[in-house]
Specification:
This is Ig-like domain-containing protein. By secondary structure, this protein is α+β, with helices and mostly antiparallel strands. The chain has 6 helices and 26 strands. The chain has 3 domains: 2-198, MHC class I-like antigen recognition-like (Murine Class I Major Histocompatibility Complex, H2-DB, Chain A, domain 1, 2-Layer Sandwich); 205-299, Immunoglobulin-like, CATH 2.60.40; 310-397. Helices cover 19% and strands 39% of the residues. Strand 18 (275-281) and strand 19 (288-291) form a beta hairpin.
Length: 403
């Protein structure tokens, strides 16, 4: 949901070093009238890696990482307690979504409430911090200031709830204990058990992309781990802050991450070699530098005024999507996309297909393909950005290119 996308923040303390901060995040989501989709879901992430999952259909909290087996051996009651906690929370959330609908004078249709909470831990300074945000239908609803332990309403419909919660001293004391003691303690333990996975480093493939000669040049880095990374444009040794648009850090299907940054610039012979895209990864000295030169850019139209030589008609046999917690929903109806101009020599393809009519709030579908393999897809809802589609093209959409 708008403010609750799984965006992974970075803290940069110098041009060549990124401060490692470990994170623990839980995403709880309740929804109405989404056919085939669980009414309640909870997903837990440590350092951006999913480690626990519960939904209202399975009625069971489950481990998503092999190293959690060792954690369960040393904490034999953990999964049973997680299951019982989620059974209770499922009921509470389904009641709360009904209350929210009344507050906003909503009746039927698709509605979603979500709660994201957790903590951060700096393993060098031992400093900790917490986060707690609620949203309804893609809009901020309530947030907890974890410094003062005070709830703040984002709109008038939330005032009643904040007044009630801020008067509850027992609730305030529990939250303080949770964000200063319980959550950081669990985070440290999880990092310790999963350190072989969580503390590894993987460098990405960095590509320069441009849809047309007049489009911004996108620097795209995919396949890196951990999520604490920086990607920026530089000119003459100085980082650029104007004419650049930075995207969010998004998860890949294999546990790695991707990010991109756009540069609004006409690539002429005069500017070639003056600009460069720089990638830096936490825990790794040095950086990956990609010079802005025409030969390095993957584009749908290589030359100004060149007419693309082929068309591709995309037929989607399965359209699946994930929530911010990266949970896969059910398959939706067959849907045919629009024609996309593609240069046969290009490794980079943007395919725009229309949204599914089974999702009334969907407005579009974006798929990015490298070397014939989909690496990034989004379904855009009114205020929802849902990451989808990962894996071989043939397994997802059928033959490519069309027979």
């Amino acid at each position: 949901i708008k403010s609750l996308n799984p965006v992974y923040p970075i803290t940069c303390i110098s041009p060549y070093f990124l401060l490692v901060i470990h994170t623990l995040r839980y995403f709880r989501t309740a929804s109405t009238d989404i056919a085939g989709f669980p009414a309640y879901i909870e997903v837990g992430y440590v350092d951006g890696v999913e480690f626990t999952h519960y939904n209202s259909e399975s009625k069971k909290a489950e481990a998503k990482q092999d190293w959690m087996k060792s954690f369960a051996v040393d904490n034999p009651d953990y999964w049973e307690m997680e299951t019982q906690r989620n059974v209770v929370n499922e009921h509470v959330f389904l009641v709360n979504i009904g209350i929210a609908k009344e507050r906003f004078n909503h009746t039927g249709g698709v509605h979603i409430i979500q709660w994201m909470f957790g903590c951060e831990w700096n393993d060098e300074t031992n400093e900790t911090d917490g986060c707690n945000q609620h949203s309804y239908d893609g809009e901020d609803f309530i947030a907890l200031d974890t410094k003062t332990m005070t709830y703040v309403a984002a709109n008038p419909q939330a005032f009643i709830t904040t007044l009630k919660w801020n008067r509850d001293q027992d609730r305030k004391e529990y939250r303080k204990h949770y964000y200063t003691e319980m959550c950081p303690s669990l985070l440290r333990r999880l990092v310790n058990y999963g350190q072989k996975v969580l503390m590894r480093t993987e460098l990405p493939k960095v590509s320069l992309l441009q849809k047309t000669p007049s489009s911004p040049v996108t620097c795209h880095a995919s396949g890196f781990y951990p999520h604490m990374a920086d990607l920026f444009w530089r000119k003459d040794g100085e980082q650029l802050h104007e004419d650049v648009d930075s995207g969010q850090t998004l998860p890949n299907h294999d546990g790695t991450f991707q990010m991109m940054v756009d540069l609004r610039l006409e690539v002429t012979d005069e500017v070639e070699g003056q600009y460069e895209c720089v990638f830096q990864l936490a825990g790794v000295k040095g950086e990956i530098v990609t010079k802005l030169e025409k030969r390095n850019i993957l584009s749908n139209a290589r030359n100004e005024g060149e007419e693309p030589s082929s068309r591709i008609l995309v037929t989607a046999n399965v359209l699946s999507f994930t929530t911010c917690a990266d949970l896969i929903a059910r398959a939706y109806e067959k849907k045919t996309g629009n024609c996309c101009h593609v240069d046969q020599n290009s490794q980079y393809v943007l395919v725009i297909a229309s949204g599914s009519s089974t999702l009334p709030t969907a407005t579009g579908f974006l798929l990015v393909i490298f070397d014939g393999c989909p690496v990034l897809g989004h379904v855009y809802f009114r205020h929802l950005l849902m990451t989808i589609i990962h894996g071989p093209w043939r397994n997802t959409f059928g033959a490519f290119p069309p027979e």
